[in-house]
Amino acid sequence: MTPGLFKFVVIAFLTLGLKGCDMLDLHHKDENFTSSEAVSVFRTGSFQLDMTPDKALPLFTAPGEKLWVPGWNPVVLSGDGFERGTVFVTFGHGHKSYWLVADYDTENHRAVYVRTTPDVDTGTVEVSIVPNGEYSSTVNVTYRMTALSTAGNERLQDAFSEASYADMMKDWRRLISDNKDSIDKHSGE
User: Fold this and answer.
1) What 3-state DSSP class applies to 74?
2) CA–CA distance, 178 with 172 (Å, rounded to integer)
3) Phi and psi dihedrals of 19, rounded to 5?
């Protein structure tokens, strides 16, 4: 995909997401919501894994998270779940979210996603992984999210408080560690 076409796809994706990707419900629940009311959060955290960055990066993809996230069952609409431009949908916490793979760089062990949950929030999720010894790595996860409604404000203030985010990083590490056998089996080790 050319850079110009990719930029168009990202803009179209965000536009559709912000206008309500569920074509059956284009009604905005909070049409008077303004930018001065929108909560934005920036959270970053990290954790250690006992695996190399090459092995860890695929775990943070649409298909890879199936190996360790309970109930994670994305529907890939285009692409393979890894490549730049892939679009997939997830269902969780009572909401449908649309994801776009903005970047998937295996050489630098980095993935960037645009996530839009219509009438709730939108933003980016970045995962970068660096080696930490011969057989371990540090996973850095950054969320930059903006609310699209009063309900979105509440969700971001709750789910992305500093304490909640720190707990999420601990949970991710624990879930990956608890599922290491199935992850190893899937990767052929």
Assistant:
1) coil
2) 10
3) -95, 0
DSSP 90-111: EEETTEEEEEEEEEEETTTTEE
- Give yes or no for residue 77 having a pLDDT over 60: yes
Within the chain, residue ranges assigned H as helices are 3-19, 53-56, 150-159, 162-178, 180-186
Q: What is the pLDDT of residues 78-99, one digit of tens each?
A: 999 899 999 999 998 888 999 9
Rounded distance, CA 97 to CA 12, Å? Answer: 16
Q: Residue 101 in contact with residue 94, Cβ under 8 Å?
A: no
Tracing tokens 């009604």 back to the chain, one arrives at 27
Whether the Cβ atoms of residue 104 and residue 122 lie closer than 8 Å to each other: no
| 13: pLDDT strictly greater than 80 | no
* Residue-range domains of the chain with CATH: 3-20+37-186 (3.30.530.20)
Q: What token pair was written down for 159?
A: 């789910």
104/85 Cα distance (integer angstroms)? 9
Contact status, residue 103 vs residue 123, Cβ threshold 8 Å: no
pTM over 0.90: no
Q: Does the CA dihedral 162-175-47-121 come out positive or negative?
A: negative
Strands of 137-147's sheet, edge to edge? 40-49, 137-147, 121-131, 110-117, 95-105, 87-92, 75-78
